[in-house]
Amino acid sequence: MSTEPVNVDEFEELARQALPRMYYDYIAGGAEDQHTLRQNIQAFCRITIQPRILVDVSKIDMSTTILGYRISAPIMVAPTGSHKLAYHEGELATARAAAAAKTIMVLSLASSYSMEEVASSCNAIRFFQLYVFKRRDVSTLLVQRAERFGYKAIVLTADTPRLGRREADIKNKMIAPPQKNLEGLLSVKVEVESDQGSLLESFVNEAFDPSLCWKDVAWLKSITSLPILIKGILTHEDAIKAVEVGVDGIIVSNHGARQLDFSPATVSALEEIVHAVKGKVPVLLDGGVRRGTDIFKALALGAQAVLVGRPIIYGLAAKGERGVRTVLEMLKNELEISMTLSGCPCIKDITRSHVRTNTHYDKLHSML
Ligand SMILES: Cc1cc2nc3c(=O)[nH]c(=O)nc-3n(C[C@H](O)[C@H](O)[C@H](O)COP(=O)(O)O)c2cc1C
Ligand SMILES: CCCCCCC(=O)C(=O)O
């Protein structure tokens, strides 16, 4: 019998076995009771797919375009920090795997390798994810470096005025990993009592700017000519504001359920946001995507693409660059089979009528 993993969950198990407990807990964990963490997955399960038959599906085209960049499938790499915790080649390996999969990698500001090292390691299309520090000059420098080194968009993460309460990290006294992009700019060494919990949390709470607000998008636009996507939108109210302030794209995200517990599962929030945005800017989604069918469902509800976070790190921890390649290939293959069996040869063929959401599902249950 083959021991090769056949799905993302099996990669998670391999990663759990491979990683020190503190790192696995940091990567896999969510905030507080981890209600939203479970819901990110379960909300996908409440959606059914309504297949069409007798459609010519002899050729399936999964390719799509995001901000003008052609990618092989609507599956992007979400920004996640500190890939060296999972594998010594860290983001260099991840970026090569993203390039091989012909997709976009969003590099986290908190990457283990610097944005310059990642840029020179491969020709993947790269976006740069930004946190805004109290030291605005530091954030400005980072944006300028990203622009100079060929990053094609800035992803402003807007859901982290402070770090969510991740109880495993508090218990494990999670370290604050070295921040290559901040070398010579900001120190991650924090002054803490010896019995203090998560050191990462202490650093973030000391350095990030909790006064960041909507008017600051104008500031960001004034320091870069790159398109700006805003990450962390969960309501139609904020989606409308994002369009009003002139962002170029929205990422529906609850930060992998690591920030506010009991915030909505992302796929449950998606449709109201898509309606509010009225096609003015692309809407992407991350959170809980583990199967090709999840991707199909998100696209049917109006997302242009999804991003995957933990599955990439699980691939990296289990099998390095090859693991990330395999995870991306698996998700692409699963999406391909979902499209084939649903009668959707191209991405544009996936429509709202190809899914039913929990309303119908709950009605059915009440009849049983
Ligand atoms: C270990 C880890 C580190 C993360 N680091 C960042 C980060 O540096 N910046 C950011 O915007 N989001 C970060 N995220 C959130 C991801 O971008 C993404 O929203 C989330 O992982 C999606 O959910 P998924 O893991 O279920 O795919 C991180 C998530 C994880 C699991
Ligand atoms: C500059 C250090 C920030 C680390 C935060 C990483 C993150 O977003 C996470 O969810 O963990």
TrEMBL record:
Its cofactor is FMN. Gene3D superfamilies: Aldolase class I. Pfam families: FMN_dh. The keyword Membrane does not apply. Residues 1-360 form the FMN hydroxy acid dehydrogenase domain. Its EC number is 1.1.3.15. It comes from the Eukaryota. Keywords: Oxidoreductase, Peroxisome. Its main location: other. It is found in: Peroxisome. Belongs to the FMN-dependent alpha-hydroxy acid dehydrogenase family. This is (S)-2-hydroxy-acid oxidase. The gene is LOC103499256.
